[in-house]
Specification:
The complex is a heterodimer of chains A (392) and B (264).
Chain A: E1 5-9, H1 13-21, E2 26-30, H2 45-57, E3 61-66, H3 78-87, E4 92-95, H4 98-106, E5 111-113, H5 122-131, E6 135-137, H6 144-153, E7 157-164, H7 176-181, E8 198-201, E9 210-212, E10 218-220, H8 222-231, E11 235-238, H9 245-265, H10 270-278, E12 285-286, E13 312-320, E14 323-328, E15 332-333, E16 337-342, E17 345-350, E18 354-355, E19 361-362, E20 364-365, E21 371-375, E22 385-388
Parallel strand pairs in A: 1-2, 1-11, 2-3, 3-4, 4-5, 5-6, 6-7, 7-11, 10-12
Antiparallel strand pairs in A: 7-10, 8-9, 13-14, 13-22, 14-21, 15-20, 16-17, 16-22, 18-19, 18-21
Chain B: E1 2-6, E2 19-22, H1 35-44, E3 48-53, H2 62-75, E4 79-82, H3 86-91, E5 98-100, H4 109-117, E6 122-124, H5 131-140, E7 144-157, H6 161-168, E8 176-181, E9 188-193, E10 196-205, E11 218-222, H7 229-240, E12 251-252
Parallel strand pairs in B: 1-2, 1-11, 2-3, 3-4, 4-5, 5-6, 6-7, 7-11, 10-12
Antiparallel strand pairs in B: 7-10, 8-9, 9-10
Helix pairs in contact in B: 4-5
Classes of the chains: A alpha/beta (392), B alpha/beta (264).
Chain lengths: 392, 264
C-alpha cells in the first residue's frame, strides 16, 4: 500500500528545512508571483532552487503555489516563470486558473488543483484529469464519508486538508475583502473580513441588533487522521505559510509520529498527540467538516482567539560539551522546568545554568534572538526546540 | 444583445426579454422551480429557457443529477448554467448547451477562451472585474455574459452561520436578515438555506450607462431577492433606446470603475 504523504507549509527557507527535518514528505511554498497569501510568498527563483536542492537531498518534494485567480493583465510573464520553476526542479505547482493549469502542464510540470476550485466529487475530478491535472485538493467542506467516496471513485491523486486555518466560506467564493477593503481576496490580498465583528438586524430599520460573528476556528484533524489513512487519500495537508518555526516543528513532527505509529502498530494514542499539538496552537481549533456538519462548536464567538504561546523559549543551534547554543525566543529563568522537543527527542530537564555571549552566568534570559548557552544534561541536536513546561 | 432575466414567479415569464432563467433543485441563490414548472414554461413560452444547475454537487448526488440533466434534455431547455465541473463531465453524453458560471472564478479572457475551447457555449464573467477588463474580454470573444443588474453575492459558505450563532447564544434562530460590520454603515443581506449561508452587498448593481458596451453579448438581470422585475426590465429597455436613466440611491456600479488591490 502506498503511504499517505504528509504535506507541510513553509513561509521561508528556514521553515522549509524545519518542516523536512520534522518529517514532512513534501512542502509547499509561495513564489513571488501568481500566489495567494502575498505576505508569506517570498520565494525568488533562487530561493526555490535552494528549496528543491535541500528537499531532494532528503528525498522530499517541493510544491509551489500559483493559486491566484488572475485578471487579464496578471498573466504576463507566466510562461517564462513556469519555465524557470521547471528548471528549478519543483515537483509540482498548485493552481486554480485553467490557463495557469494548461501552461504548467505544457511546461512539463506536475500540476495540482487548488482547493479554490471547490472540488467535491469524482465527476469534477474527471474533468480536471482530462486537462492533465494529476492531483486535486478537495474542498474543505467534505466529511470523512464523502472523502472516502470521492477518493474511491477518483483516478487521480486526492489531497485533503488536515490542519490549520480555514476559510469560513467555500474557498474562492468570498469577496468580502474585495467589497469591504478593496483588497482582492483571490489575488493575495485577503483582509480576513470574515473574522471581524458584526451585528445582526432582522430588517433594515431595526433599532435592535444582536451580536454576530462567523469566524472559523482553525482545523485540527488529529481525530480523523487514522480514518484518512484507512481511506488511503494520497496527501494530508497542513495549512500555515504564515506560521512560526515552533508551530511548523510541533504540528508537522506530531503528525509524522502519529502517521508512522499508525502504520507500524495499527493504533495510536490520539490524546497524546492532541496535547502535544496544542502546545503550538495560538487559535482555538475544531474538526471542521471532517466529522460531519459544522455546528457552533466550530466557530469563534465573542472573542479573538489569538493568544501568543509563551512556552517556546529557545531554538537550539548547536550542542557542545554539555551546553546547548540557543537563540532565545521567550523569557526563561534558572529553575524553570523545560522540555527539549525535536524530531528524535522529547525530554524534560531543569534549567540550572544560562551563559550569555560573554560567558557570564545569568539568572534570566529575556532578550529574543540573543544567543545563549544553556546547560542540558543530555545530548541535543541543531533545530531541536526548548519549551518551558507549564503545570496547569 | 441577448437580454436575460432570472425570475422568481411564473407570471414573470411575460417580461419583455429574450431569455428566462429558472432556478431548480440543483441551484443556489435562485428561486426554485420544479421540473414540471420548467417544462410548462418551456412549452408556453417562445423565449429561450435556461435553468440554473449551479450548486456544488456531492458525490452521492451525482446519480440524481444525471437523471435531472437527462430530463432537462428531454424538456429541451435551451441551456443550463453550472458551476461544478461534474455537470460538464456528465453532460458529455447528454449534450445540453452549457454556460459556465462559477461567479468569482472567471476573471480573465484567457481562462474564458480555454473554457469555450472545451465546448462550453458561454462563460459568465466574475463581478469583481472592471468595465475595461470586461471590454478587453469582449474584444477576444462575444460568447460571454455579464450580470448587469442584481444583488451581488459576496460570500458563500456551506455552514449554517445564523443557526450556529443564535444557537450559541441560546437565542431564537432567524435565517434571514442583515449584517452590519461594527465599524461600517452598510447593511449586508444574509440568507441561510439548505445550501448554506449567503451574504450580499447592501446595494444593488445597476448598469444603465454601461449596457451600451454590451451590445454584442448576453446580459443578465439577476432577479434573485428583487421585487419588481417588470420595472427593472423596463428601465433597461428605456436605457437601450437612448434614454438617460439615473442610478438610484440604493444602487451602485460594482467594480466597473474600481480596481482591487493585488497585494497587502
Amino acid at each position: 500500500m502506498k503511504k499517505t504523504e504528509l504535506l507541510a507549509p513553509a513561509g521561508s527557507l528556514e521553515k522549509l528545512k524545519i518542516a523536512i527535518k520534522y518529517g514532512a514528505d513534501a512542502v509547499f511554498i509561495g513564489g513571488k508571483y501568481f500566489s495567494l497569501r502575498a505576505r508569506s510568498s517570498n520565494f525568488e527563483i533562487v530561493d526555490i532552487l535552494a528549496a528543491t536542492s535541500y528537499a531532494h537531498k532528503y528525498g522530499k518534494k517541493v510544491y509551489v503555489t500559483l493559486n491566484i485567480l488572475p485578471h487579464n493583465d496578471d498573466l504576463v510573464g507566466l510562461e517564462k516563470y513556469l519555465a524557470e520553476l521547471s528548471k528549478a526542479n519543483v515537483d509540482a505547482v498548485i493552481v486554480a486558473s485553467i490557463t495557469i493549469a494548461k501552461k504548467a502542464i505544457e511546461a512539463g510540470l506536475e500540476t495540482h488543483l487548488s482547493t479554490q476550485c471547490s472540488v467535491t466529487n469524482s465527476k469534477s475530478i474527471e474533468f480536471y484529469q482530462s486537462l492533465g491535472i494529476q492531483r486535486v485538493v478537495l474542498a474543505r467542506e467534505l466529511n470523512l464519508e464523502e472523502i472516502a467516496l470521492v477518493n474511491k471513485n477518483s483516478q487521480i491523486e486526492v489531497e485533503v486538508f488536515i490542519h490549520g486555518g480555514m476559510c469560513v466560506s467555500y474557498s474562492g467564493r468570498c469577496t468580502l475583502s474585495n467589497y469591504m477593503t478593496d483588497r482582492d481576496a483571490n489575488r493575495g490580498g485577503c483582509a480576513h473580513s470574515c473574522r471581524w465583528n458584526y451585528q445582526f438586524k432582522e430588517n433594515s430599520t431595526d433599532q435592535q441588533s444582536e451580536y454576530f460573528a462567523m469566524s472559523s476556528k482553525d482545523l485540527n484533524g488529529v481525530v480523523a487522521v487514522t480514518k484518512l489513512l484507512d481511506i488511503g487519500v494520497d496527501s494530508l495537508k497542513i495549512e500555515g505559510r504564515m506560521k512560526s518555526v515552533h508551530y511548523i516543528a510541533t504540528v508537522v513532527g506530531n503528525y509524522r509520529k502519529l502517521i508512522d505509529e499508525y502504520y507500524e502498530k495499527g493504533t495510536v494514542n490520539l490524546e497524546y498527540y492532541q496535547k502535544e499539538i496544542l502546545k503550538a496552537e495560538n487559535r482555538l481549533t475544531s474538526t471542521g467538516f471532517l466529522l460531519g456538519d459544522v455546528t457552533d462548536e466550530q466557530h469563534l464567538y465573542n472573542m479573538r482567539s489569538e493568544k501568543p504561546t509563551q512556552n517556546f523559549i529557545a531554538h537550539i543551534k548547536d550542542y557542545l560539551g554539555g551546553y546547548a547554543i540557543v537563540e532565545e525566543r521567550n523569557k526563561f529563568s534558572i529553575g524553570d522546568t523545560a522540555e527539549v522537543y525535536g524530531p528524535n527527542i522529547h525530554k524534560t530537564f531543569i534549567i540550572e545554568e544560562i551563559l550569555n555571549e560573554k560567558g557570564q552566568s545569568i539568572e534570566v534570559a529575556r532578550h529574543p534572538k540573543e544567543i545563549l548557552k544553556v546547560k542540558i544534561p543530555f545530548a541535543v541536536q541543531k533545530d531541536d526546540l526548548i519549551r518551558k513546561v507549564i503545570y496547569k | 444583445m441577448e437580454l436575460i432575466v432570472s425570475i422568481n414567479k411564473i407570471k414573470e415569464i411575460n417580461l419583455e426579454v429574450d431569455s428566462l432563467v429558472l432556478g431548480s433543485e440543483f441551484s443556489v441563490r435562485s428561486t426554485v422551480f420544479t421540473l414540471a414548472e420548467i417544462e410548462a414554461v418551456k412549452q408556453k413560452s417562445n423565449k429561450n429557457i435556461y435553468v440554473n444547475v449551479n450548486k456544488i454537487i456531492l458525490e452521492e448526488e451525482l446519480d440524481r443529477l444525471e437523471i435531472f440533466l437527462l430530463k432537462l434534455k428531454e424538456i429541451d431547455v435551451d441551456g443550463i448554467y453550472f458551476s461544478c465541473m461534474s455537470v460538464y463531465s456528465l453532460n458529455r453524453q447528454i449534450g445540453l448547451d452549457l454556460f459556465y458560471n462559477p461567479e468569482t472564478l472567471t476573471t480573465n479572457y484567457s481562462d474564458v477562451l480555454e473554457y469555450l475551447a472545451l465546448g462550453i457555449k458561454k462563460v459568465v464573467l466574475a463581478r469583481e472585474i472592471t468595465l475595461e477588463s470586461i471590454k478587453k474580454i469582449i474584444s477576444k470573444t462575444t460568447d460571454v455574459e455579464v450580470n448587469i443588474h442584481g444583488k451581488l453575492n459576496m460570500f458563500y459558505s456551506k455552514r449554517k452561520l445564523l443557526t450556529n450563532c443564535f444557537n450559541n447564544f441560546e437565542q431564537e434562530v432567524k435565517t434571514k436578515g442583515f449584517l452590519r460590520e461594527e465599524l461600517r454603515e452598510e447593511y449586508y443581506p444574509i440568507i441561510e438555506d439548505e445550501t448554506g449561508s449567503h451574504i450580499f452587498h447592501g446595494l444593488t448593481l445597476s448598469s444603465y450607462d454601461e449596457i451600451s458596451n454590451f451590445s454584442e453579448i448576453a446580459v443578465k438581470i439577476d432577479g434573485y431577492l428583487l421585487e419588481d422585475l417588470a420595472t427593472v426590465v423596463n428601465d433597461y429597455q428605456r436605457a437601450l433606446s437612448g434614454e438617460k436613466i439615473e442610478r438610484a440611491e440604493d444602487q451602485f456600479s460594482g467594480y466597473y470603475y474600481k480596481q482591487t488591490k493585488y497585494k497587502k
